[in-house]
């Protein structure tokens, strides 16, 4: 089974990387973009169930102080 | 409108970061994980339509030589 674990900064945490990208997009002439936030995604192939993947995400992939995560099943 | 742009390495491109993470997970005692691949995710808030977001993803977020991307609408 494949799982997609997406890790973002929490909404109230400032995202300097996203802000830089937003500024670059404006400088390049892309209009109508209000905000960009950046995260990481991990595609995990595993025999384990979703609970185990959530445990790994919580303990290893995500810094719970400033980040949040979500886990999606992607099928076999 | 919010869009989620996910950028991965193409399937046939070696992912050293993912491989390192896999090794670390095994060293930490997590069992039953066969593979990990890593990507980036961009949450873009924009007035533009999905075609425009795909254009930005294609021209700025994604290095088409080694990466692929997908765009999802996340709602308002």
Give structural notes.
- The structure is a homodimer of 76-residue chains.
- Chain A has 76 residues and is α+β, with helices and mostly antiparallel strands.
- Chain A has a single domain, classed as Phosphoribosylformylglycinamidine synthase subunit PurS (Mth169, Chain: A, 2-Layer Sandwich), CATH 3.30.1280.10.
- The first copy, chain A, has two helices and three strands.
- The first copy, chain A, has a three-stranded antiparallel sheet.
- The relative contact order of chain A is 0.36.
- The model of chain A has no long low-confidence stretch (mean pLDDT 94).
- The A-B interface holds A 6, 8, 18, 21, 24-25, 28, 30-48, 52, 56, 60 and B 6, 8, 18, 21, 24-25, 28, 30-48, 52, 56, 60.
- Strand 2 of chain A pairs antiparallel with strand 2 of chain B.
Task: Note the main attributes of this structure.
homodimer; 76 residues; alpha+beta; Mth169, Chain: A; 3-stranded antiparallel sheet; 2 helices; elongated
């Amino acid at each position: 089974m494949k799982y997609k674990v997406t890790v973002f900064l929490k909404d109230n945490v400032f995202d300097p990387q996203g802000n830089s990208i937003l500024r670059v997009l404006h400088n390049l002439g892309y209009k109508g973009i209000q905000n960009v936030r950046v995260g990481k995604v991990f595609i995990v192939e595993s025999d384990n169930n979703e609970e185990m993947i959530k445990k790994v995400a919580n303990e290893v992939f995500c810094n719970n102080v400033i980040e949040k995560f979500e886990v999606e099943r992607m099928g076999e």
